[in-house]
From TrEMBL:
Enzyme class per UniProt: hydrolase
Domain of life: Bacteria
NCBIfam families to which the protein is assigned, alphabetical: HAD-SF-IA-v3, PRK14988.1
Pfam families for the chain: Hydrolase (PF00702)
Gene3D superfamilies for the chain: HAD superfamily/HAD-like (3.40.50.1000)
Keyword Mitochondrion on entry: no
Enzyme Commission number, as recorded: 3.1.3.5
Name this protein carries in UniProt: GMP/IMP nucleotidase
Keywords: Hydrolase
GO molecular function annotations of the record: 5'-nucleotidase activity
Length: 219
């Protein structure tokens, strides 16, 4: 699937790519709306109806991923609420074997996530990931999400990689398209980011479910 001799840098998303997206889907679609409904004294359906247009308006924007924005908008302690269901944070199947193989290679391995720093910290408390990476970068550091071109420009300045010799894996098709537009040559889409849901279409991108299909990795 990948000719590893053509790859110097591996860029990896976190949620839905390394970690099971079930935690995030459950949090945003069920658990947090229930907490908001409880705080406002309204039904869960009413809470979801209130939240839906806010979700649509912020989709693909940095605010969507910003826990500070949601805390201010909804008057909810988002970190505390996430901690209540932190036991749902788990690795996707075969992720550990894949990361171990990458770590043992000579390739530059970089985590790039839209997750807010507090969300990243919470997940790193549950799952030890940092030792696998040369860099761990949240888009909040740059002020732009991965969906937007300036993110990639800032990234290139920080880690100095050749887009034509980089592999990027993500579960978001809009983000993969943004990376492709920047010039990243090797792209893979996660076909089943949420273990509780069926696989999704990866459209123009080659899809991958198990990382075992990418092994072995050659220097």
């Amino acid at each position: 699937m990948i000719n590893w001799h053509d790859i110097d840098t591996v860029l990896l998303d976190m949620d839905g790519t390394l970690l099971d997206l079930h935690f995030d889907n459950h949090f945003w679609l069920e658990y947090m709306p229930a907490k908001y409904a409880e705080k406002q004294g309204i039904s869960l359906d009413a809470a979801k109806q209130h939240l839906e247009p806010i979700f649509v308006q912020t989709s693909g924007q940095l605010q969507w991923y910003c826990l500070d924005y949601w805390r201010q908008t909804l008057d909810l302690d988002m970190v505390a609420i996430k901690q209540e269901i932190a036991h749902l944070i788990t690795l996707r199947p075969s992720t550990e074997a894949f990361l171990t193989a990458l770590h043992q290679s000579k390739k530059q391995v970089v985590l790039i996530t839209n997750a807010h720093q507090d969300s990243l910290s919470l997940k790193l408390e549950r799952i030890a990931l940092s030792h696998y990476f040369d860099y761990m970068i949240t888009s909040h550091k740059y002020g732009y999400p991965k969906e937007q071109p300036p993110f990639w420009e800032h990234l290139a300045k920080e880690i100095h990689f050749d887009p034509s010799r980089a592999l990027f894996i993500d579960d978001s098709l809009p983000i993969l398209r943004s990376a492709r537009d920047y010039g990243i040559k090797h792209l893979l889409a996660i076909s089943r980011p949420d273990s509780k849901l069926p696989p999704k279409a990866t459209e123009e991108f080659l899809g991958v479910d198990s990382y075992l299909s990418l092994l072995p990795i050659n220097d």
